[in-house]
Amino acid sequence: MPSETDTSAPRARSKPTLRTVAEETGFAVTTVSRALAGDERIAEATRALVAEAAARVGYVPDRAAQRLRTGRTKVITLLLNTAHEYLGFTNEFLSGMTEALRGTGYAVNITPDTVGDDRMAVVRNILQNRLADGVVFTRTECFDPRVRFLLENDFPFVTHGRTDFTTPHPFVDYDNAAFARMAVERLASKGRKHICMILPDERFTFAQHLRYGFMSAVREAGLDYTFPDTVDLDSSPDEIAAAMADILGQSARPDGFICVGEVAALATLAALTDAGVEIGEGADVVAKRASPIFSQFRPRIETVFEDLRETGFEAGELLLKRIDGAEVQGLQVLHKPTKGFALSG
Amino acid sequence: MPSETDTSAPRARSKPTLRTVAEETGFAVTTVSRALAGDERIAEATRALVAEAAARVGYVPDRAAQRLRTGRTKVITLLLNTAHEYLGFTNEFLSGMTEALRGTGYAVNITPDTVGDDRMAVVRNILQNRLADGVVFTRTECFDPRVRFLLENDFPFVTHGRTDFTTPHPFVDYDNAAFARMAVERLASKGRKHICMILPDERFTFAQHLRYGFMSAVREAGLDYTFPDTVDLDSSPDEIAAAMADILGQSARPDGFICVGEVAALATLAALTDAGVEIGEGADVVAKRASPIFSQFRPRIETVFEDLRETGFEAGELLLKRIDGAEVQGLQVLHKPTKGFALSG
DNA sequence: CGCAGAATTTAAAACGTTGCAACAAAATTC
DNA sequence: GAATTTTGTTGCAACGTTTTAAATTCTGCG
In chain C, which nucleotides are within 7 Å of a protein Cβ? Predict the structure, then answer.
């Protein structure tokens, strides 16, 4: 039949749209749109019919069109930082986040958390150009200007780490003060008298928390302490190791070491090994662990676990809820270090 | 120029659009669009005028609208794999990629490289829903079905790692065969007679390359060899360490070890340490290094460097060129291990 | 002066979606 | 049986851009 071929000819392999489904079912485009959105105003029977037809022709809504029409991007952006105290941070966190977004239709976008030296430009750009519906970032500072800006503009976001702003905002964090305290106490219980810990750059909130937990525990137990002041957690492994070697060469040298992250741990162990100090004898080391690799460090050290994948997952979940309009109150998660220190592996 | 009509209109704080610039300059929207695109048909003077006005009102093109109209998404997607032989892989690779895309208007999207067990569904979904203009993925297999699919559909992509397909496609890769050969030769030069290397899962192309380079060098030098067959590079640190301990317990035990990645290196070192084998005495270890952390491994080992950030950068660059229609020929980058082995740090 | 042919500019039509206002048909009320 | 509400459904108008086809102005030249 020629007419048959005629009508099927122009029907090229083009992407099915609402119109396709509309023609298929005989309903109007509007109705189809509503039906697929599960609108109560559309009859139950119609909804079923439309759903069936949509599935049959393989209809999938066009993101660009939805975005243009609604202004919602269905994108959330993670601000990527190059440095982290754990090598596997990005992979773990990101895996958790994408997992939380699975099936929601949201996509994860990555953008460096800084252009040149400017952290604000990144977030301003996202707001101004409506590049995302929400933002997640790490390495939060006590009075992080990004937080202030986002709060002022009422834009959904979740921070990894807290701030000192009085206005509450969603966050996921690990209780680093409790960790530091536990770590000091653990070393004290082993008879250590002089504790050393490498801190993150002081502008990060978690540096303050670590310091606070550390100091209060050290004071309580009446211990000596040292913070290496030439390096921080973002320094290169070599710099950290050199700083540790330096400290080990001093007359009043520490006998207890707390490590936040792989780099600090390995550099500390290397410095101790190079100085001929034996773990369990001349010194003890405890660390926070985010990857199973810690079990292979020699000498072995005791660790507690921080689950970064879970953290990323929660960051994703919280942000979705926030975008959906949830109140900030319920959107704050603080992980306590539950179990005590144990030998890794 | 048309008469200056009511400028007192409710000029709300709405995002400036082409229309805004059009009204501002007195030109038609079409002209403005063309002028901003640098279209030759628009008079030089007009282009300048429009550019100035656009900058003044802070015009930025709307991504959603462009995408809807042109079908181009200005997005490229990186397929994220949870496991990698280097902990820092994701961060490094991603940092490189975003760097390559800076200023191009392209955004990076992250999606897990597998849903359930299905690697194909991910890439099919991207094509079908036009979620991106191009794709990058890692952990390429010899006859990777994703590559076949993308080639068949003429969709731009870059793989990290090669395939054995006859049809060429863009890739970035490291010459792992050369690395393995170098490593064997290095160990041989130290008088080692029995070489051991943990391979990646054999379905990955780079596993074949490593094996090939290894085998040909081992045969040439007339050495013994062992591939631990209960683990691969993606096994857990504990499993790898256990397998190595096992091998060290055998009568004919290897005296040279090649490690691809941190996990293998640390697990091997731990097993050697635990077995009381001294590096330089009872055994030697060489490794490929992607992060500066290797300098802190004790005992120290010799390494060669693979630059994953650069790799990510190139992947981004190649994909952009490919999207722009460049021929596949020039879009294949193979990194040779240039310098020889040296003590890390 | 008239006119072909460049050189510029423009109006209008998409792209696929959703929100608004309206409408027909059925159900309810008085 | 008319008036009113309820229940489903629909057409039209955006959202901001690019593209097609057409209109306008500007040249130079006979």
Answer: 7-12, 14-20
